[in-house]
Design brief:
Chain C: This is Carbohydrate ABC transporter permease. The complex is a heterotrimer of chains A (about 425), B (about 300) and C (about 290). Chain A is of the alpha/beta class and about 425 residues long. Chain A contains 17 helices and 13 strands. The N terminus of chain A is likely disordered. Chain B is built from 13 helices and two strands, in the order H-E-E-H-H-H-H-H-H-H-H-H-H-H-H. In chain B, helix 3 packs antiparallel against helix 10 and helix 12 runs antiparallel to helix 13. Chain C is an all-alpha fold. Chain C has 14 helices and no strands. The chains are: A alpha/beta (about 425), B mainly alpha (about 300), C mainly alpha (about 290). Chains in contact: A-B, A-C, B-C. At the B-C interface, helix 1, helix 4, helix 5, helix 8 and helix 9 of B face helix 2, helix 4, helix 5, helix 6 and helix 7 of C.
Amino acid sequence: MSGFALSRRSLIGAGIGGATLVGLGGLPAAAGQTRLRMFWWGAKERAERTDKVNQLYLGSHPDMTIASETLGWTDYWARLATQTAGRNAPDVLQMDYRYIFEYARRGALLPLDAYVPKALNLSDFSPAAVDSGKVDGKIYGVSLGLNSTAMVYDKGLIQSLGLKEPVWNMTWNEIGDLAAEITKAAKRDGFTGMEDGGGNEPLLEVWLAQRGKSLYTAEGKVGYDDKDMTEWLAFWSDMRKRGASAAPDVQALDRGEIDSNLLSLGKIAMTFAHSNQLVGFQAINKSKLGLSTFPDGGQGAKPGQYLKPAMMWSVSAQSKQAEAAVQLVSYFIADTEAGKLLGVERGVPASSAVRNVVTPMLDDLGRAMVDYISLISDKVGPLPPPPPRGAGEIQAVLRRVNEQVGFGRLTPADGAKQFVAEASAVLARG
Amino acid sequence: MAAAHTPETSWRESATGYLFLAPWLIGFFGLTLGPALVSLYLSFTDYDLLSNPRWVGAANYVRIATSDPKFSAAMHVTFLYVALSVPLKLAFALLVAMMLNRGLRGLPLYRAIFYLPSLIGASVAVSVLWRQVFSGDGLLNQALKLVGIHGPSWISNPDTALYTLVALAVWQFGSPMIIFLAGLRQIPKDVYEAAEIDGASRSQQFWRITLPLLTPVLFFNLVVQTIDAFKAFTPAFIISGGTGGPIDSTLFYTLYLYQEAFAYFRMGYASALAWVLVVIIAVFTALSFLTSRYWVHYDG
Amino acid sequence: MVDLAGQDGVTPPRDGRRRALLYHVVLCLASIAMLYPLLWMLASSFKPDSDIFGDASLWPRHFSLAAYWRGWSGLQVTFGRFFLNSLVVSLCSVVGNVMSCSLAAYAFARLKFRGQKFWFALMLGTLMLPYHVTLIPQYILFLNLDWVDTFLPLIVPKFLAVDAFFIFLLVQFFRSIPRELDEAAMIDGCGPWRIYWIVILPLSIPALATAAIFTFIWTWDDFFGPLIYLNDMNSYTVQLGLRSFVDSTGKSDWGALFAMSTLTLLPLFVFFLFFQRLLIDGIATTGLKG
């Protein structure tokens, strides 16, 4: 009996000891090795794929170790900001189009131009794909996948209602009519054809671009005026009145994430999102989903959408092994073997060579994403002027003002005036 | 506070006091004070986390006092939340603690069940569920329908969203309940026996024995819950997804502070906001302590 | 139940059994309301992902244990590791917190020393500062100590009574212990250390149990500390492990999240059930005289 007790205790002791060893001391890296830290956001599937690529890379680089760190989107930015502020940033880090300007302009990222083409192989990237990682003319990010704004819609439902699925050349009004028809045909309490897009910044950006405007001017001011915004807010006000898009108290359930999106909650049939999110949406929706463009500007309009990186690799300006970090980045984006392992999980590969290898291996969802990118490739416009400092706050202002109009606290005209004033003030503050 | 030092407080006594206090003192000077002072310094700077802080004098405080509409919005939300959630939560916790402080069968199980909501804390499960209970076609409205009331979508309506967060706070009443229970358990049984012999009724026993003897614990719960409610962050963060919406109706003070610090890279301004909050909380805490001598009874 | 509803409010005081039954009915109804979310989480852990959202039913239509399997061993590190890490951090925290906070609380509640009021006010003051703004200076501090990516930033503060909540809690309880007991012990020749050890601590078992319960649960549930300080997945705590299933912008594994969330509650529940015994029994046996 006592023998058993002893062995059990020592077992537990060993277990705790092991955990404490890792926890308290960390794992010592063998002498003479290059140890790279790599950090990205994502969930399980991305972790598995990324890990496989790292293992493959280490197979041909026995002198290296890669320490991978991973978190979900929200947590990622809090930790990255803390680590960067503490001068302890990871060597290789995943960047988002929205944040790259903030980080690059504050000197947190390494400009990569000097590493092209030797360490960083961008030969199979289109010039547009290379440009999408540039800030103020220098390369700070390398696209891990092409992406664009896209409408995700409930294909199964629209088909079962006997209605026409949305297609790429439908105008704003046509989409609105379709949404109203869906509302009418579905006959469900609190259900509407599409989301209220009035507070959706990427959607506004497309709408503005179609009329030759933009969210920001090249000088870093707001690129629209009261009149534009009145029209925009009035359009959505009308959509709500017609029952084509979600009522304000339904729309407010959406917190800007896939799980709280009204499509996932079964409240709408069409939502405005990004093409690489199709997989995430499909995973929690029972009905079959489809992908289409944002509404068209109609006759004589300029292109509204543009290709942007779904996510990028960047290298920290604090990295002490920049050369090795850049080589690893290059392997991820240019190597076909790595590409096969990554698939289109982070978006459609920007390198044409990798894309050619990957495309035949894809399932339906993956193919839908690739098809979508090729469908819009000849319809997209150039990159808009970059967001100035402080621009991140404006999407919250837009959301709030659209809610104020939706809940009847402001008229579209007053809302427009307030929005332009607040957005200008935000940019002035920086 | 137990009597201030008198001339008789010998150095020997003082030394003993400081010896007991040593771990805390080391922690305070080693881990707490430095970061607090740094944040005080940062509140006088423009600091974007990624580049070096730049001294701007009192500019951040001036902006808070004169030209920040979001500050007043956040203040309004926070005060309302404190005023509603603290008394409700404490009343509920005390009521349940009294109910569970009896010799009934199965009470340990009930105690555990009532504590369970506080165990899950602020998780994804809670955020999804709160939506399912308080949205337009949620459980609450289905129940209201039975009595002929057509309720709004509570959680996503700017007039009612805050109340769903108050409900969340009250639902997670576990910690003050446990503290009340521990307090009730420390009241000696023979006090009640003596009262019963004197013929005191149950309600008399409550007002004359239970409540007075419970005041130190009640005071603790009041102070701590008030501080916590002023600093409430996670409920709004998980329910509104960090937006504080709809129309800033759940923009708690610390949520606003967090947005400024980590979403918009204004750590200097956020630090100033934090210190303004410290002052506000300190005033309330000081008031509680000043009035406590009239209603808190130590040393039963 | 029908019978009881009619009796509500007019229960004769001597009818103890009816009263007890009424209690049980009220408590049962309240329990169901309290438990609904947890039951939903439990049900969700058996549902396929596409059935989780927009469905409030408590009974999964397709019952499957797959999410548990995926959750336990789906990440690069098994969940058992996270449990072990959380257990180490939480248990160390309980020991550290109860020890250091009871020492400080005893000083504040029972001893007299110069500057006592000042330190007490400062101690309370540390409760008031939102942690978001001290996070980065603290991170830099721990980075310089070379403690980042270890458990030390999570455990050492507990041994140094950094969470003033617990000091204040224990102060309030210590102060309601009758002073005559100290004085009696002092007459018997006990110094402050012995009084702390043989009078105050034994009489405060409920309060200490409360502190232990809270420390364990809050440390177990904490994710912000681990989020900032632990980088290596081998050292992740359960809360970080849980968050690894979800990415709000991409594809998440909700089933695995809810399955592991359910498992994660078990140790908390067990810990609570065990310690609440101390909380309840502690004082009943001491026969304390008021």
